[in-house]
């Protein structure tokens, strides 16, 4: 293999064409475009302008032997199958988010990848390449704010007008897309949430389907998770908030992190465990507290963290990291096997809302698929989904 990975782009829509531009603009120096595939003739015509072989589908691209790796920029349901086909063909695989729509198909992809340890398997969680979230994870992992007691993420910056959903027949359908805001807009936040704060034990969700948009799938979500040991979290997302909010709070017993707009983080570090500070505070201290006479630096310090991040740098960085792993074993920013975590959380949120009660993250995957297929049948537009990829 040359010192550049020959990448096959499967799906040449907005994302696939963006990746081609990143590569041609030199943002991914260890990658070159090997071939492109798309089932739509118009997109194949656009792909041909890049001067590389163009194929009608991923099968013919894989059979041609023109690529070392593929990236799957296609509808969500197709990610696992194309990933499996690539790995079985001896081709490295980078799947787009989400890894799939339901855990049973994603687990089949993970099992296939485990059978081919010589191949690189990654997922496009570009937000893991955001230096702000990398630093936040480091602070949490190093215990700087102590044990997590509560997390809250309000992410409603996804405003989408009705016309957005009417541009494609598959969009915002159970059979075509597999869900709404949880599988389209918010997978990155679901991944970051559990990547930084840990995987919860259970979830209870109130989900609105077609609440403010004429769609079958969810357009507003409020979920409460239980981490065990009294620690809880909430996740709120929607597509009808024109002003939008993006605010993550992580409260620990020795501090707190508040992230605004995924751009700025304020980190508060207590001088001691919060309970110890409380136990040491006498009535005279309490009176001073109520009068505003307490110097806050007596109890905590604060740091504001902010990074500059150029548009496209996070995606191109994941592509470069993926290729580096192929070429020399550089550790992956986002191993593909971890893609199942966000899918499992989204599935649990859906299932809790469908059943009307709290659901364990170790839920019945067959029950979830049966409930999903029930909704696909009611649409009458798409075939039901099998257990595997």
UniProtKB/TrEMBL annotation:
Top-level taxon: Bacteria
Domain (Gfo/Idh/MocA-like oxidoreductase N-terminal): residue spans on this chain: 6-117
Leader sequence residues: none
Pfam families registered for this protein in UniProt: GFO_IDH_MocA, GFO_IDH_MocA_C3
GO function terms (MF aspect): nucleotide binding
Domain GFO/IDH/MocA-like oxidoreductase: 133-257
InterPro entries linked to this entry: Gfo/Idh/MocA-like_OxRdtase_N, Gfo/Idh/MocA_Oxidoreductase, GFO_IDH_MocA-like_dom, NAD(P)-bd_dom_sf
Name the UniProt record assigns to this protein: Gfo/Idh/MocA family oxidoreductase
Organism for this UniProt entry: Saccharopolyspora terrae
């Amino acid at each position: 293999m040359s010192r550049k990975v020959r990448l096959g782009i499967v799906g040449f829509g907005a994302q696939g064409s963006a990746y081609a531009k990143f590569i041609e603009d030199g943002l991914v120096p260890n990658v070159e475009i090997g071939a492109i595939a798309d089932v739509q003739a118009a997109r194949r015509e656009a792909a041909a302008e890049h001067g590389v072989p163009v194929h009608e589908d991923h099968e013919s691209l894989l059979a041609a032997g023109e690529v070392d790796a593929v990236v799957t920029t296609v509808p969500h349901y197709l990610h696992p199958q194309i990933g499996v086909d690539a790995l079985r063909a001896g081709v490295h695989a980078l799947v787009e988010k989400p890894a799939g729509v339901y855990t049973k198909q994603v687990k089949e992809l993970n099992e296939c990848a485990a059978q081919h340890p010589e191949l690189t398997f990654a997922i496009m969680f570009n937000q893991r390449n955001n230096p702000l979230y990398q630093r936040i994870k480091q602070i949490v992992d190093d215990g700087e704010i102590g044990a997590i007691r509560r997390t809250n993420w309000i992410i409603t910056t996804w405003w989408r007008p009705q016309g957005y959903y009417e541009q494609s027949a598959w969009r915002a359908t159970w059979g075509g897309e597999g869900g709404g805001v949880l599988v389209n807009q918010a997978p990155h936040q679901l991944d970051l949430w559990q990547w930084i704060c840990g995987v919860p034990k259970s979830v209870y969700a109130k989900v609105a389907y077609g609440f403010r948009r004429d769609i079958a799938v969810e357009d507003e979500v409020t979920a409460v998770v239980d981490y065990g040991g009294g620690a809880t979290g909430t996740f709120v997302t929607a597509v009808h908030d024109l002003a939008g909010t993006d605010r993550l709070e992580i409260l620990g017993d020795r501090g707190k992190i508040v992230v605004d707009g995924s751009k700025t983080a304020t980190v508060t570090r207590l001088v001691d465990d919060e309970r110890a500070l409380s136990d040491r505070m006498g009535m005279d201290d309490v009176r001073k507290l109520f009068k505003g006479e307490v110097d806050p630096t007596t109890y905590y310090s604060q740091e504001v963290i902010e990074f500059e991040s150029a548009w496209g740098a996070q995606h191109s960085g994941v592509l470069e990291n993926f290729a580096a792993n192929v070429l020399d074993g550089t550790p992956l920013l986002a191993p593909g096997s971890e893609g199942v975590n966000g899918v499992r959380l989204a599935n649990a949120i859906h299932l809790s809302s469908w059943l009307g009660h709290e659901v364990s993250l170790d839920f019945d995957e067959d029950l979830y698929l049966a409930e999903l297929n029930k909704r696909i049948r009611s649409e009458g537009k798409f075939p039901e989904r099998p257990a595997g990829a």
